[in-house]
UniProtKB/TrEMBL annotation:
Stored Gene3D superfamilies: Vaccinia Virus protein VP39 (3.40.50.150)
Region (Disordered): 1-24
Stretches assigned to the DUF1156 domain: 31-100
Taxonomy, superkingdom: Bacteria
Compositional bias segments (type: Polar residues): 1-20
Name the UniProt record assigns to this protein: DUF1156 domain-containing protein
Record InterPro entries: DUF1156 (IPR009537), SAM-dependent_MTases_sf (IPR029063)
């Protein structure tokens, strides 16, 4: 754990050899969480041009989060530069300046702002001896971390065992810089007289050659995609063909092919209602589209437990369907056509011509790889769909193989045009080239990604959304489902799933990618074989068994490989993605649950042990963990994934110095879904624990927690941590105390486990929050005790009287204070709904912290933050606003323990918006229309 500020030393590996106390980095002291969470959530609504839309990947981290974490990981906290900032006040001011820089830097619109990026790079250099550190992410996945490292001017190194992930990272951090400011080479691109900057030329060529591929594909197979004829005789481009899988009826007296349909609805839009009506004619089923707002007489033919045959309602089980599927006897019927109309969608009955056009032979040379056995997340094998090609209709296979062949062909076209445009031939892209050969490889790669992207909406696993009148994608979640009726989109239409639409998505991402620094590196490599010497590390490792990356990504890889096997053979050298060494706890691959757990633990520990001994020690390691609701441990339980990560880090010699909850849900999600959604990620900052770290006892650990946790929690609560995230954020200072010791001995001499340490931290958190009660006014102390025991319910007035006296108040005073009611021998706290009305704290006879908190929380839930901001100036004249916020934390904690979700949401909502509410309140207080005087919320009197 060393560092030096000698600017003559060239890299992190040399800097880290100088023995000295480590400088704290900003991430180990404070982060502008509100800004980070706001921008990370906002990213969800940004589509065109956002790198996440280059191609699907699972559990991608928001760019705002990754950018903020990297800068805070690399920049010194002002407390580490005492010669520049000798006082706490100066350190606080400098920290605020750095927080403001981060808050400005992470706004999406500022992503490529040259002045902001220059300022950020200057801060990084200033904190790292005048050098830009090297940054490695050994579990690069979707590439958010290496992309942001590249944007910040670092030497970015991305590696992953999965070739799909490596291709994505290569397309984002390597290729764009390699061909920065290169004009397009296609002779048909317009505007070639204008100067080309960044990746604009590359994007223009992707669009142009993508159009050539689409046009040529239509020339070859377009006759299989006829236009639809409406009842009036007009012709329309088809958007999608709706199909239903079929099985033979188990009734021998009526052996028809019966459709498996979840819903007959095609459109539920008001005024455009449409559904399919089946009828039996001459032993076969005819499908007719009906327009009637009353809807179909039945929802469908199959549900979770089984189904019924059309016509005679003969029941059948799902086991019967599975048996038919495994025997190769599942068929398919076209049941409707969706076409582009002059004023929206047209829903038409299937025709003989369209059925004939879709009837094609299975093409040769389709990807024949076996689907991995992962029954939790992949459901198709039990129905006989065991190979990746089975997830597509024959017409879809014809389309995909045609486009795939054309990508190889267009590569030769690009090469010829590039040489004609004056490029040297040079080496291939995989050999580090930057000439015509490499440029042709790059265009083919982006078109292959476009085709792979299309498969997510071009499969027989794409359902039809009758509420939105569009096809859904396969990966609505991180799994491959089995569906009964599906939508086959038209790859040559102008609607969802068409090939040129995918090309446009990719081109827009290209235009947004940074190119300022040299090319980054993306390699296919197991994390255990990465050379970490002298590099900083920020990574988002696999989370135990949450996502089966290799099994799921084969869906895309088989098509990427088919398109690129002659273009970039080294990038797609394996038939399927590697699985044996993938760091995921898959019980079907590692001899059951216990074997899978041991495999994951051993692999994880090997990687982080190697990092501990070779990575740069003057820069903390940052590790992401995707938190889930069940990880909270409210009932004293700790999830396997969370425990394994912490235990692995600590056992391999790391000391946790900070944990930060990062949120990327849309801001309305917790309220809209009536649940408290935990932060979507935890970011841990870690330092190598000294080899001579002391041991301690359980008693000494408890004493240390009680000594250090209260102040740490106070800082967290005064910051931007939401109540729902407090328990997670508290793990940082808590586990930091635990992990500084080489071991903690229990009373029986055994070593304390991380699981027990987490439970101890939670217990200490309970105590610390409970101790805050003594700081509140008597009415509030009474109300907290009553709420803890009885909530908003009624109890005996005698109990209320006793509890009031013990809290140094009285029932009468509580009633005058407007928070309690005692009548007819019964008593109860006034509920939030009873306190949500009009209120002016300046004229209220008796105002307690309890009344202010509950009223403000109720107003927040009912009328929103602006209304709370209007009230805050008057509330400030009567109670300490810091106490209101502290009570909000405490009441959320009590509601969580009572499993009262409604109350937890209520109090979390108030405290989570506290920063924004305060800012808005300052504006209200300082405007002429306000009757209140301007005031400073940060200077409440004790």
């Amino acid at each position: 754990m060393t560092h030096t500020t000698d600017s003559n030393q060239p890299d992190a590996s040399e800097r880290s050899t100088v023995t000295n106390a480590p400088k704290k980095k900003l991430i180990e002291v404070g982060l502008p969480l509100e800004a980070i969470n706001r921008e990370s959530s906002r990213e969800k609504s940004i589509r065109h041009g956002h790198p996440s839309t280059l191609h699907l990947w699972w559990s991608r981290k928001p760019l705002a989060t990754a950018r903020a974490v990297l800068l805070a990981q690399l920049v010194d906290d002002p407390s580490s530069r005492a010669h520049e900032f000798p006082t706490v006040e100066l350190q606080d001011a400098e920290r605020r300046r750095l927080h403001e820089l981060i808050a400005e830097l992470i706004v999406w619109e500022n992503s490529n702002d040259p002045d902001l990026l220059a300022r950020a790079r200057a801060e990084i250099k200033k904190s790292n001896g005048g050098q830009m550190p090297r940054l490695a992410d050994p579990f690069a996945g979707g590439g958010s971390i290496p992309l942001e490292a590249h944007r910040l001017g670092l030497e970015a190194y991305a590696s992953d065992l999965n070739p799909v992930a490596v291709l994505l990272c290569n397309a984002m951090i390597d290729v764009p810089s390699r061909f920065a400011a290169t004009p397009p080479v296609s002779p048909t691109v317009e505007g070639q007289t204008t100067p080309w900057s960044g990746t604009d030329g590359l994007a223009a060529d992707v669009r142009d050659y993508g159009k050539w591929v689409s046009d040529e594909a239509f020339r070859r197979i377009g006759h299989h995609f006829p236009r639809a004829v409406a009842p009036g005789g007009t012709e329309h481009t088809v958007i999608a063909w709706k199909w239903a899988r079929t099985v033979r009826s188990p009734n021998p007296a009526n052996p028809i092919e019966t459709p498996l349909v979840n819903s007959w609805w095609l459109s539920k839009r008001k005024g455009r209602e449409a559904f399919v009506s089946p009828s039996i004619e001459n032993g076969s089923i005819t499908y007719t589209v009906v327009h009637d707002p009353s809807g179909p007489p039945s929802d469908g033919t199959v549900g979770r437990k089984g189904g019924a045959v059309v016509g005679d309602d003969t029941p059948f089980s799902l086991n019967y369907v599975r048996e038919e599927g495994r025997s190769g006897r599942i068929g398919q019927h076209m049941i409707a056509i969706v076409a582009e109309g002059p004023r929206g969608r047209l829903y038409l009955s299937p025709s003989t011509a369209h059925i004939a056009a879709a009837t094609v032979e299975r093409p040769d040379d389709v990807p024949e790889g076996e689907i991995g056995h992962y029954p939790r997340d992949i459901k198709t094998q039990t129905y006989g769909m065991t190979r990746w090609a089975d997830l597509f209709t024959n017409r879809q296979l014809l389309t995909l193989t045609t486009f795939s062949d054309l990508i190889s062909e267009v590569r030769q076209r690009v090469l010829s045009d590039a040489v004609s445009a004056g490029m040297d031939s040079g080496r291939s892209l995989d050999d580090g080239g930057s000439g015509a050969e490499a440029y042709a490889d790059a265009i083919a790669t982006y078109l292959a990604l476009s085709l792979s992207r299309m498969t997510d909406r071009y499969s027989n696993l794409c359902s039809w959304d009758s509420s939105r009148d569009s096809a859904r994608n396969v990966f609505a979640r991180q799994a491959i489902p089995m569906i009964w009726d599906f939508a086959e989109v038209n790859p040559f239409s102008d609607s969802t799933g068409n090939f040129l639409g995918q090309v446009e998505w990719v081109a827009k991402v290209l235009e947004s990618l940074p190119t300022g620094s040299g090319p980054g590196v993306a390699e296919q490599r197991d994390a255990g074989s990465v050379d970490y010497r002298g590099v900083a590390v920020s990574t988002d490792p696999p989370y135990y068994d949450y996502i089966g990356y290799s099994d799921l990504s084969d869906f895309f890889y088989v098509w990427l490989r088919r398109s690129l096997r002659d273009v970039r053979p080294e990038a797609v050298r394996t038939l399927l993605t590697p699985k044996a060494d993938e760091l995921v706890a898959n019980p079907h691959r590692h001899n059951g649950k216990d074997g899978a757990e041991q495999f994951f633990i051993d692999g994880f520990n090997d990687v982080f042990r190697k990092m501990r001994h070779t990575a740069a020690s003057d820069i903390p390691l940052t590790v992401y963990y995707a938190y889930k609701q069940q990880d909270a441990g409210i009932d004293g339980q700790v999830s396997t994934g969370w425990y394994t990560l912490l235990s692995g880090l600590i056992s391999t010699g790391w000391e946790v110095t900070a944990t930060w909850p990062m949120r990327s849900e849309m801001s309305n999600r917790p309220l809209s879904q009536e649940k408290n959604a935990l932060a979507s990620s935890i970011v841990l900052a870690c330092r190598p624990r000294p080899e001579d770290a002391p041991a301690t006892t359980r008693r000494a650990l408890v004493a240390a927690l009680k000594a250090e946790l209260p102040e740490a929690l106070r800082r967290l609560m005064q910051g931007a941590v939401a109540p729902v995230d407090l328990a997670q954020a508290a793990i940082g200072p808590g586990i930091g105390v635990f992990s500084r010791y080489s071991r903690v001995r229990e009373a029986d001499g055994s070593d304390m486990s991380v699981r027990d340490a987490l439970l101890l931290i939670n217990a200490t958190l309970d105590e610390v929050l409970g101790e805050q009660e003594s700081d509140f006014d008597p009415d509030t102390r009474f109300a907290v005790k009553w709420y803890r025991q009885y909530g908003w319910g009624q109890e005996n007035s005698g109990i209320a009287d006793q509890l009031a006296r013990s809290s140094d108040t009285s029932v009468g005073a509580l009633e005058r204070g407007g928070i309690f009611e005692a009548k007819g021998g019964k008593a109860h706290l006034l509920s939030p709904s009873q306190l949500a009305g009009q209120w002016d704290a300046t004229v209220d006879e008796r105002v307690s912290v309890w009344e202010a908190t509950v009223r403000l929380a109720a107003v927040m839930a009912k009328d929103g933050a602006d209304k709370v901001a209007e009230l805050l100036p008057s509330v400030h004249t009567r109670v300490n606003l810091d106490a209101v916020k502290e009570l909000g934390f405490l009441l959320f904690h009590e509601a969580e323990k009572k499993k009262d979700t409604k109350d937890a949401i209520l109090f979390n909502g108030l405290v989570s918006a506290w920063g924004d509410v305060n800012e808005q309140a300052r504006k209200y207080a300082s405007t002429p229309r306000s009757s209140q005087q301007a005031f400073d919320f940060d200077e409440d009197e004790d």
